[in-house]
Write a structure and sequence with these properties.
About 25% of the residues lie in helices and about 25% in strands. The chain is α+β, with helices and mostly antiparallel strands. The chain has 3 domains: about 1-75, Uridine Diphospho-n-acetylenolpyruvylglucosamine Reductase, domain 2; about 85-205, 2-Layer Sandwich (Uridine Diphospho-n-acetylenolpyruvylglucosamine Reductase, domain 3); about 210-295, UDP-N-acetylenolpyruvoylglucosamine reductase, C-terminal domain (Uridine Diphospho-n-acetylenolpyruvylglucosamine Reductase, domain 1, Alpha-Beta Complex), CATH 3.90.78. A 5-stranded antiparallel sheet has the order 6-7-14-10-11. A 4-stranded mixed sheet has the order 1-2-5-3. The chain has a 3-stranded antiparallel sheet with strand order 15-16-17. The structure holds flavin-adenine dinucleotide. Flavin-adenine dinucleotide binds near residues 61, 122 and 217.
Length: about 300
């Protein structure tokens, strides 16, 4: 599809290994990086008129791809990466990485994203799933979100008009909308205190999570604030259980890691096994936090 080149940087028949944190080897016909919002809108119009399948990908840190080739366009918003300041209000493109933003705002005397320093997701992806750590979520300091709706209108909405909860948001409930920009209002902070907090958070992650292996973070939501999925899986003796190249981490039972050559099917089969065992023993339905992309 020659026409796609006009909308931004285009990669053809490409491995998606570098575009998902599980490092699955799936391929796609196209990966498009739109130059700006205008190019994204033009692409969406073209896709609607020509029935071109597409989906929006952030940093691929919460998805489990199918093993078959994606015969469509994966749209990565990494070129929507502007950051601008107006006092404590910070406006960022949806493609900015949250862990980068956490460090960036500190340089401008702001704080409030220390919790996100270990989250390898984009602003768009983190708003979509309301990413959270250490009891602070993405919506905490969010003020407004600008997005494109299914009729290709640009809409700007205040946080209060956008539903959100534990690992969910209006955007997860209405995935036809595409987040392009967000404004946060952060509290003032001091560089030393923020960096100290970030060091502490990263240290805690390093000691409890298998960061040396590809993964997509926690696999399941916690059934309640008192009950951790990792504990249930650990108590069933499932740590180390392996299917193909996918393995339940010995370090953290709510992580599935790719120990080499894992396929999307290996991960899905391991998820199914965990869900069946937990249901059988505890009568609890574990809900997936990660998203399977089946095409
Ligand atoms: C080591 C590790 C640690 C992690 N720790 C945490 C943690 O502590 N807390 C936590 O909540 N998560 C954690 N995660 C999971 C993940 O990083 C987050 O869920 C993150 O928010 C996903 O962002 P992403 O850009 O990678 O989204 P992707 O995985 O690329 O996409 C996820 C979904 O969001 C949609 N989406 C992405 N961008 C947009 C957009 N601009 N507009 C509309 N829809 C969009 C996609 O279509 C997809 O449906 C961790 C992951 C890893 C690998």
């Amino acid at each position: 599809m020659k026409e796609l080149e006009q909308f931004g940087i285009l990669e053809k028949d490409i491995s998606l290994k570098k575009y998902n944190t599980y490092r699955l080897e799936t391929e796609a016909s196209y990966v498009l990086h739109p130059k700006d919002v205008g190019s994204l809108l033009s692409f969406l119009e073209f896709a609607q008129q020509n029935d071109v399948p597409y989906f929006i990908l952030g940093n691929g840190s919460n998805v489990i791809f199918s093993d078959s080739k994606y015969e469509g366009v994966i749209v990565k918003l990494d070129l929507l990466n502007h950051i601008s300041y107006e006092g404590q209000h910070v406006t960022v493109g949806a493609g900015v990485m949250m862990n980068f933003l956490a460090l960036e705002i500190i340089k401008n005397g702001l704080s409030g994203l220390e919790w996100a320093s270990g989250i390898p997701g984009t602003v768009g992806g983190c708003i979509f799933g309301n990413a959270e750590a250490y009891k602070t979520s993405t919506f905490e300091y969010l003020t407004t979100v600008t997005y494109i709706d299914k009729d290709l209108h640009l809409i700007k909405k205040e946080k209060d008009k956008l539903s959100h909860g534990y690992r969910t948001s209006y955007f997860k409930e209405h995935p036809e909308n595409i987040i392009i920009e967000a404004t946060f209002t952060f509290p003032k902070g001091t560089k030393e205190q923020s960096l100290e907090l970030i060091r502490d958070r990263l240290q805690r992650r390093l000691s409890t999570q298998p960061l040396e292996y590809p993964s997509a973070g926690s696999v399941f939501r916690n059934p309640s604030s008192e009950l951790a999925s990792g504990k249930l899986i650990d108590d069933l003796g499932l740590k180390g259980k392996q299917i193909g190249g996918a393995c339940i981490s010995e370090k953290h039972a709510n992580f599935i890691i790719n120990i080499g050559g894992a396929t999307g099917k290996d991960i899905r089969d391991l998820i199914k096994l965990i869900q069946e065992k937990v249901k059988e023993v505890y009568q609890i339905d574990l809900i997936l936090e990660q998203e399977t992309k089946d095409w």
